[in-house]
Amino acid sequence: MPLRVAIFGLGYVGCTAAGCLASQGHQVLGVDINADKVDAINAGCSPVFEPGLEERIEAGQKAGLIHAVTQLSEELATCDIALVCVGTPSGPDGAHDMGAIAAVTRSIAAAIEPARTRPLTLAYRSTMRPGSCEQLVWPIIESVLGARAGDLVELVYNPEFLREGSAIEDYFAPPKIVIGTLTGSHSAAMSALHDGIDAPIFQVGIKEAELTKFVDNSWHATKVAFANEIGRVCENLGISASTVHEIFVTDTKLNISPAYLRPGNAFGGSCLPKDVRALQYIAGDTGSHTHLVDALIRSNEAHKHHQFLRATVGLEQGAKILLVGLAFKPETDDLRESPAVDMARKLLDAGFALDIYDPQVDPASLVGQNLGYAHAFLPTIDDLLVDRKTVESGEYARIIATNRLIDTLDLNAANIVDVSAIA
Ligand SMILES: NC(=O)c1ccc[n+]([C@@H]2O[C@H](COP(=O)([O-])OP(=O)(O)OC[C@H]3O[C@@H](n4cnc5c(N)ncnc54)[C@H](O)[C@@H]3O)[C@@H](O)[C@H]2O)c1
């Protein structure tokens, strides 16, 4: 069923939505403070260049499905959905300048007809920091509409994943659809708007939806910076960067995959920290300036300390703690650079009474570097390790799980902090 959609902000995101929605038979009202953009749309032209967009805007305008205005008109009363696509450029301190969001929200709220019989679905597509909908947008709406705000407006955050240059293609084949609402509940209007678009749909809370673009864009930037750092190292070593790239991306098991991307434990073990440090050395030695790689160990150390603070929050000094899992992962006795060893060391330094349970770790059997590491970083390891019977009968103020070994024990779940996952 055709929808009536108002689009605020006729830049790359707004114009693409206007052309694509009109091509699906929806009625579009474009609103932009820039009169040149409005005139262009009303003349059937696209104010921005995107392959295939002008044809769609021209066809939509000729069919009477698109028109644009500089001032919000009474037509909003007949709209099912308002899409906000205004710009959120960088402010002087790096934060988004939210001026356009606040201004457009105020004008929309003021134009909402109090006699509406069904709520206007007000969906933000502009990228804005988590909390903006709840702390900026909704208070503006409530200040204008008062107690009736909830009846008159369904607030949605719906990030846009198009890329300039392939915006039309991306609009109809996005990597995913994310619809955030204040309650996390389903929005019928947004389902209708995405009808015919085949992509995984995430119906989530509004802050999770708001954060999505930050995570995606920062990840894409990380990938580019990492690829270029490795490219520089290759070039400086006379190695073929394209061959290295091909080998790297062909590994869809560990490299280009969800592996190593779940927030939880710091990295550790006998390989990752050692080889990252060695790559830093090679990069320094060849003048490759790998700032991203150089930041990895520091980021990891910061995470270990965050986990320590998280695991001990609210505890009194001297409290008794059980640490479950000391090796860097289950089913190994390898303690080298295990984040759990750092956790144990921090707990002891902070004056907590500590028991450690890890049935794979037997100090008497540790040899070589593993033994050296254990004794260097945890000299009292022999006294700290306890058996299962002690653990299950012990009284602990807190139990810290570093891996799934915790599932094999019969423990009071109420005081367990699982540092292997950030939910
Ligand atoms: N460009 C992209 O590829 C892309 C992709 C996904 C998300 N985004 C996000 O979408 C938002 C819009 O991006 P864009 O590239 O389309 O921006 P843009 O700068 O091209 O367009 C923004 C438009 O908003 C208009 N505007 C400003 N204040 C207004 C107001 N009060 N009322 C009506 N219109 C107003 C401006 O005149 C301009 O035409 C940004 O938050 C951006 O981060 C952009």
How would you sum up this structure, described in words?
- The chain has 423 residues and is α/β, with parallel strands linked by helices.
- Helix content is 43%, strand content 13%.
- It has helices spanning 12-23, 35-42, 53-62, 99-111, 132-145, 149-152, 167-172, 188-193, 206-237, 241-250, 272-285, 291-312, 339-349, 368-377, 381-384, 388-393, and strands spanning 4-8, 27-31, 66-69, 81-84, 120-124, 153-157, 177-181, 201-205, 320-324, 353-357, 398-401, 416-418.
- Helix 13 links the parallel strand 9 (320-324) and strand 10.
- Residues 8-14, 31-34, 37, 85-88, 100, 103-104, 125-127, 160, 162, 164 line the site of nicotinamide-adenine-dinucleotide.
Brief synopsis:
The protein has 423 residues and is α/β, with parallel strands linked by helices. The chain has 2 domains: 4-208, NAD(P)-binding Rossmann-like Domain (Rossmann fold); 306-418, Rossmann fold (3-Layer(aba) Sandwich), CATH 3.40.50.720. It has helices at residues 12-23, 35-42, 53-62, 99-111, 132-145, 149-152, 167-172, 188-193, 206-237, 241-250, 272-285, 291-312, 339-349, 368-377, 381-384, 388-393; strands spanning 4-8, 27-31, 66-69, 81-84, 120-124, 153-157, 177-181, 201-205, 320-324, 353-357, 398-401, 416-418.
Keywords:
single chain; Rossmann fold; 16 helices; 4-stranded parallel sheet; alpha/beta; binds nicotinamide-adenine-dinucleotide; 8-stranded mixed sheet; 423 residues
Helix and strand arrangement:
Elements (H helix, E strand, L loop, with lengths): L3 E5 L3 H12 L3 E5 L3 H8 L10 H10 L3 E4 L11 E4 L14 H13 L8 E5 L7 H14 L3 H4 E5 L9 H6 L4 E5 L6 H6 L7 E5 H32 L3 H10 L21 H14 L5 H22 L7 E5 L14 H11 L3 E5 L10 H10 L3 H4 L3 H6 L4 E4 L14 E3 L5
Parallel strand pairs: 1-2, 1-4, 2-3, 4-5, 5-6, 7-8, 9-10, 9-11, 11-12
Antiparallel strand pairs: 6-7
Helix pairs in contact: 1-3, 4-5, 9-10, 11-12, 12-13
